[in-house]
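User: Hi! I'm working on a homework problem where we have to compare a predicted structure to a textbook description. Could you give me the structure for the chain below?
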Amino acid sequence: MLVSHLGDIDISEITLSVLKEYLAKQSDRLKPSSLGHRIRFVRSLFRFAYKETYLPSNPSLKLREPRMEKQIPKFLMEEDVIHLKISCQTLRERALLEFLYSTGCRIGEVEKINIEDLKWENCSAIVNGKGSKQREVYFTTECKVWLKKYLDNREVKHYL
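Assistant: Happy to help. Predicted structure tokens:
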């Protein structure tokens, strides 16, 4: 897109003002988050060109991403949770829903949990989060009941 906008121009002829002009035209039709992606791409391209000595200096260093509005997290109403619980068709679905809801874990964290990571006596589990950081999460007694029902009805009992 940058090349189609600028035409057949040598990369060393591209200045900060040329990049700002290009991005200003993009900002008319892009959301701030999409413009931020575009700016990161341009900076990455010019960082590479500079490191590989195609450029004597990096004109994209002073490009800044647009400020993003802070979004309020979305949450489920109690009624929504009840509908989700009713819609579960298997023990596995219900156990997974209960665990996700009561712990706040990400799906990727839950899929890595082994049975040995569960501490039944205090309704907790050790999960590996982002950056391989381990943390302890706690689940409800209701979740414990559904997890045990699910695990008791499975043939292979090594992984959740």
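For your comparison, note the following. Residues 2-51 form one domain. The chain has seven helices and three strands. Good luck with the assignment!
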